[in-house]
Amino acid sequence: MNEVTKINGVGPVLAKAFTKKGFTSIEKIAADSVTDLATVSGVSETRAKELIKSAKLLLKNLALTDSARKAKPAKKSV
Fold first, then answer.
1. What is the pTM of this model?
2. What is the C-alpha to C-alpha distance for residues 10 and 52, in angstroms, rounded to an integer?
3. Do residues 63 and 71 lie in contact, with contact meaning Cβ atoms separated by under 8 Å?
4. How far is it, in rounded angstroms, from Cα 49 to Cα 78?
5. How do residues 29-77 score in pLDDT, each as one tens digit?
6. Whole-angstrom distance, CA of residue 27 vs CA of residue 13
7. Are 2 and 19 contacting, i.e. CB atoms less than 8 angstroms apart?
8. Are 45 and 34 in contact (CB under 8 A)?
9. Do the Cβ atoms of 17 and 41 come closer than 8 Å?
10. CA dihedral in degrees (67, 69, 1, 37; nearest 10)?
């Protein structure tokens, strides 16, 4: 599965179009410009803004989840 399909609003067809244009990761989409994303077939500037916002939010949530997983559980008082 293409990881960019984890971005809200990106299905398999759009993921394939992103891959053809070199947008192969969530990080790449989050960091790129609206103008660059809008070069992908089916992506307007308005949609590009929404996708960038969704990608950034996803990265933030993934980082929080990863941090919580790595956190050591508190010791129980006995």
1. 0.80
2. 11
3. no
4. 52
5. 999 999 999 999 999 999 999 999 999 999 998 887 766 667 666 666 6
6. 19
7. yes
8. yes
9. yes
10. -10
